[in-house]
Design goal:
The protein is mainly α. The protein contains 1 helix and no strands. The radius of gyration is 26 Å and the shape is rod-shaped.
């Protein structure tokens, strides 16, 4: 059975809305991934500082 033009238009609008939502969600995931990468880098830097301080403290003893 053929769909009426209005039904096709509704379907197209719904697909466009879902596509926009997916694009927005993808952007948000990319932003969160970037934040996680930044935080991971900070943790690695802090871990390195702790290791360096630990080495210095052992030398002093």
């Amino acid at each position: 059975m053929k769909k009426r033009r209005s039904e096709n238009a509704d379907d197209t609008k719904q697909i466009e809305d879902h596509t926009k939502r997916i694009e927005d969600d993808t952007k948000q995931i990319e932003d969160h991934t970037k934040q996680i990468e930044d935080h991971t880098k900070q943790i690695e830097d802090h871990t390195k500082q702790i290791e360096d301080h630990t080495k210095q403290n052992k030398r002093r003893q």
